[in-house]
Amino acid sequence: MRVNSLSGRSILSVNDLSVDEFESLIDLSIRVKKSVKAGLFGLEKEGRIITLLFQKPSTRTRLSLEVAARMLKAHPIYMGAGETQLSRGEPIADTVRVFERMSNCIVARVNSHSDLVAMRRLSRVPVINALSDFEHPLQALADFMTLKERKGSLRGLKLAYVGDGNNVAHSLILGAAKLGVWMSVATPEGYRPSLEVIAAAKVEAEKTGAKIDVLSSPQKAVEDADAVYTDVWVSMGQEAEAKKKLEALRGYQVNAELMKLAKPGAFFMHCLPAHRGEEVSEDVLESPASVVFDQAENRLHTAIAVLYSVL
């Protein structure tokens, strides 16, 4: 049932996965969810040690990974920002070389993506990105799982992303390129997705038939979209530039007027937590079109699929 090619592999980016591996993880996640709902879940990685190193706060990511590990009969060990010697200046290189000798897998939520790259280089066990300043691959897996559950097929769908071209946007763009999805991104100047990510996505899109657009107009991006996605405007660690970002993104709120431009029955998506009245209006977040809590639930099933496959 696992994605066998991922055994022992690290996942720092969506682009660490082939098209087949990304699609297979989504399909495995859907099968896992069905088995859980039917009371037939029987996957096990009994006795495995999964160390969770989190430098940033977390709700959905931490909960989904800890529950996933326990459902697999593995043992999650959570270590927060102030619970290791990292908080007193120990280099990440020293920390990871201790962790990998006592763990079967390291799942890390870090301030800098470069720390994950260093961890992968130094670790003999898989390292999984649970969010960095550059990507959030576990979130993208859950998001595309949610869309596939609802739509049946992903190829040819249009996913609009409105707001800050951040880590979540990067993973969605790379995922869309692998899945043949039309990704239409609207951001203000200065808050565009990474040129490196866009270039990599366009290379993949040429093979899969996906389409990647980066625009300034939210209205143009959302036009005829099957789903509309946004995220917080001020991410963790960006508090110092909050005022500047809020001003720049003021015209990028997803509200009822903007949703009217999408296809009838289009879904609203958000990785949460949401700042109601900023990136999304209250009525849209609480509308029947909103699938945000399905996305959150699916974080569990994708976490199970990933851990089961790499362990």
TrEMBL record:
<dbReference type="InterPro" id="IPR006131">
    <property type="entry name" value="Asp_carbamoyltransf_Asp/Orn-bd"/>
</dbReference>
<dbReference type="Pfam" id="PF02729">
    <property type="entry name" value="OTCace_N"/>
</dbReference>
<keyword id="KW-0963">Cytoplasm</keyword>
<dbReference type="Pfam" id="PF00185">
    <property type="entry name" value="OTCace"/>
</dbReference>
<feature type="binding site">
    <location>
        <begin position="235"/>
        <end position="236"/>
    </location>
    <ligand>
        <name>L-ornithine</name>
    </ligand>
</feature>
<dbReference type="GO" id="GO:0005737">
    <property type="term" value="C:cytoplasm"/>
</dbReference>
<feature type="binding site">
    <location>
        <begin position="271"/>
        <end position="272"/>
    </location>
    <ligand>
        <name>carbamoyl phosphate</name>
    </ligand>
</feature>
<protein>
    <recommendedName>
        <fullName>Ornithine carbamoyltransferase</fullName>
        <ecNumber>2.1.3.3</ecNumber>
    </recommendedName>
</protein>
<feature type="binding site">
    <location>
        <position position="231"/>
    </location>
    <ligand>
        <name>L-ornithine</name>
    </ligand>
</feature>
<dbReference type="GO" id="GO:0019240">
    <property type="term" value="P:citrulline biosynthetic process"/>
</dbReference>
<feature type="binding site">
    <location>
        <begin position="58"/>
        <end position="61"/>
    </location>
    <ligand>
        <name>carbamoyl phosphate</name>
    </ligand>
</feature>
<feature type="binding site">
    <location>
        <position position="85"/>
    </location>
    <ligand>
        <name>carbamoyl phosphate</name>
    </ligand>
</feature>
<dbReference type="GO" id="GO:0016597">
    <property type="term" value="F:amino acid binding"/>
</dbReference>
<feature type="binding site">
    <location>
        <begin position="136"/>
        <end position="139"/>
    </location>
    <ligand>
        <name>carbamoyl phosphate</name>
    </ligand>
</feature>
<dbReference type="InterPro" id="IPR006132">
    <property type="entry name" value="Asp/Orn_carbamoyltranf_P-bd"/>
</dbReference>
<feature type="binding site">
    <location>
        <position position="167"/>
    </location>
    <ligand>
        <name>L-ornithine</name>
    </ligand>
</feature>
<dbReference type="GO" id="GO:0004585">
    <property type="term" value="F:ornithine carbamoyltransferase activity"/>
</dbReference>
<dbReference type="InterPro" id="IPR036901">
    <property type="entry name" value="Asp/Orn_carbamoylTrfase_sf"/>
</dbReference>
<feature type="domain" description="Aspartate/ornithine carbamoyltransferase Asp/Orn-binding">
    <location>
        <begin position="156"/>
        <end position="309"/>
    </location>
</feature>
<dbReference type="GO" id="GO:0042450">
    <property type="term" value="P:L-arginine biosynthetic process via ornithine"/>
</dbReference>
<dbReference type="InterPro" id="IPR024904">
    <property type="entry name" value="OTCase_ArgI"/>
</dbReference>
<feature type="domain" description="Aspartate/ornithine carbamoyltransferase carbamoyl-P binding">
    <location>
        <begin position="9"/>
        <end position="149"/>
    </location>
</feature>
<feature type="binding site">
    <location>
        <position position="299"/>
    </location>
    <ligand>
        <name>carbamoyl phosphate</name>
    </ligand>
</feature>
<comment type="similarity">
    <text>Belongs to the aspartate/ornithine carbamoyltransferase superfamily. OTCase family.</text>
</comment>
<dbReference type="InterPro" id="IPR006130">
    <property type="entry name" value="Asp/Orn_carbamoylTrfase"/>
</dbReference>
<feature type="binding site">
    <location>
        <position position="109"/>
    </location>
    <ligand>
        <name>carbamoyl phosphate</name>
    </ligand>
</feature>
<keyword id="KW-0808">Transferase</keyword>
<dbReference type="InterPro" id="IPR002292">
    <property type="entry name" value="Orn/put_carbamltrans"/>
</dbReference>
